[in-house]
Specification:
Blueprint lengths: L9 H19 L4 H15 L3 H12 L20 H14 L4 H5 L5 H9 L6 H11 L4 H4 L4 H18 L3 H6 L6 H14 L2 H13 L1 H5 L1 H17 L3 H17 L5 H18 L2 H16 L5 H16 L3 H14 L6 H18 L5 H15 L2 H15 L4 H14 L4 H17 L3 H17 L3 H20 L1
Length: 477
């Protein structure tokens, strides 16, 4: 052991030690044990010539507290702190607030580092813990304390579910979804949506919205409504999808400091529903709001999702240079390791929009990326839409082959109404290449019927106008 510098001769230490013991005994007769510790600590520091140490370490001991402070290790952590406990608390508190790992880390820490902390494989400094506690708006002690017994089993289920969802093991997600924890049900709803179990997702989100948590938290209500809107849209219930998304956006406005990820999820759900329904005026306004919001976001997965949505609308408006710029931004920021399904679906959607716009830049590469990703994580609807994209590439060069592929898709899949309508529009385009006007008109009529059934009357009107134009052309010829 290193010897202390002999700043005070040994003979003078003994009386001081006796003084320390006497003071300790007298103070112990009082009501404040913290004062006892402070006096002993100061006395010993003075004995050994360490007054500066005494100054810095006694302030916490002199403050009133209802908690007995635990001895600390060399980094300032309570010595008994278990990093698994810290990680579980961090994950629980983050999930309750619907904050992503990226948003929690902010500009200081990466999502990967936050993930290591939540798994208990990294030991943060006290400064890191204080930063995270501030981001979560909780006392730092709440990250350090053991979970109440009643919360332990629910937290274990949540951890298992998150890990299973990241591996796309949806059966495991559903098996671990017992209980009434909001986060557990939300993860289950997300898994159901991704696997294409739309009825299950709608049931689960209905339960979420009926919960006390959703009633008291606008943020969590917005999360559930955004998921529900996407399920309704995928199910072809466009009017209900629009209503759910609009309510989600209103909930984000009611929340104080709503996380950016939740805001973007709600607004992109609303834009998607408005676009599917063909509500151009409302779509333009919603897109403008999202564009302004996205401009202030740091580079992140959340910004990528916003850029994807804005780019989609700009393609529909014919503003192709802006659309490609937004989609190039999304291409740069979307990472397959963050969400393989989102990454694959983006490349499919962007390739489809570029084909429709007559823009051939990067289309083949995007289709290839979409094929690789959706082969792993795509559901039946994803794969059907990808096959339709392949058929659209053959419309001009191999129209007979394209028509055969489209018909096979329509026969083999139970598709949502808007996808059926888009398939019929693609069939009409093939018949135009084949110079079969009667078949083309019949396909457009089926498309109008499908749009009407899906709750997209504006889209149906657009198709009917095309039919009328086709009929006028036939009369003139």
């Amino acid at each position: 052991m290193r010897m202390l510098a002999p700043t005070i001769r040994a003979p003078t230490r003994a009386p001081a030690v006796r003084l320390c013991i006497v003071v300790s005994l007298r103070v112990r007769g009082g009501r404040d044990e913290h004062m006892t510790r402070a006096v002993i600590f100061v006395t010993l520091c003075v004995i050994f010539g360490r007054p500066a140490v005494a100054s810095c370490h006694t302030t916490p001991l002199l403050l009133p507290s209802t908690r007995v402070r635990r001895p600390t290790d060399g980094c300032g952590w309570p010595g008994s702190t278990d990093m698994a406990t810290f990680g579980a608390n961090l994950r629980r508190l983050r999930s309750q607030r619907a904050i992503s790992q990226t948003d929690l880390g902010g500009d200081r820490f990466s999502a990967s580092y936050i993930s290591h902390l939540e798994r208990g494989t990294r030991r943060p400094s006290v400064e890191v813990a204080s930063f995270l506690a501030d981001r979560l708006a909780v006392p730092v002690d709440e990250l350090l304390d053991d979970l109440p017994d009643a919360d332990v089993s629910a937290t274990v289920s949540q951890v298992l579910m998150y890990e299973a969802l990241s591996r796309h093991e949806y059966v495991t997600v559903e098996r671990e979804s017992g209980g009434d924890q909001f986060a557990v049900l939300q993860v289950s709803a997300q898994a159901q949506l991704e696997r294409g179990d739309l009825a299950g997702c709608l049931d689960t989100t209905e339960d979420l919205l009926q919960s006390r948590v959703a009633s008291s938290s606008p943020v969590l209500r917005a999360v559930a409504l955004s998921t529900r809107s996407r399920a309704l849209r995928a199910d072809g219930q466009l009017l209900a999808a629009r209503a759910a998304a609009t309510e989600a956006v209103e909930a984000t406005h009611a929340a104080v400091d709503c996380p950016a990820e939740v805001v973007v999820a709600a607004r992109t759900a609303e834009i998607a529903a408005l676009a599917e329904r063909g509500e151009t005026a409302a779509l333009a306004s919603a897109t403008e709001d999202l564009e302004q919001f996205a401009a202030e976001l740091p580079d992140s997965h959340t910004r990528a999702l916003a850029a994807w949505s804005v780019g989609n609308v700009r393609f529909a408006e014919g503003r192709y240079d802006e659309a490609i710029a937004w989609h190039d931004d999304a291409t740069r920021l979307l990472r397959p390791e963050a969400s393989l399904r989102a990454w694959a679906r983006f490349h499919k959607a962007s390739a489809e929009l570029r084909i429709e716009a007559g823009v051939d830049t990067d289309v083949d590469a995007m289709i290839e990326r979409a094929e690789h990703g959706l082969a792993i994580v795509g559901n039946a609807d994803d794969l059907a839409e990808l096959e339709l994209l392949r058929a659209s590439r053959l419309t001009a060069t191999e129209p007979d082959r394209a028509l055969e592929m489209i018909d096979d898709i329509l026969l083999a899949n139970e598709l949502p109404g808007q996808t059926i309508a888009e398939s019929q529009i693609l069939r009409a385009a093939v018949f135009a290449v084949l110079h079969q006007p009667d078949d083309r008109r019949a396909a457009l009529e089926r498309a109008a019927e499908a749009f009407t059934a899906a709750g997209a009357p504006e889209r149906a009107v657009t198709v009917l106008r095309e039919i009328l134009g086709l009929q006028d052309s036939q009369r003139e010829s």
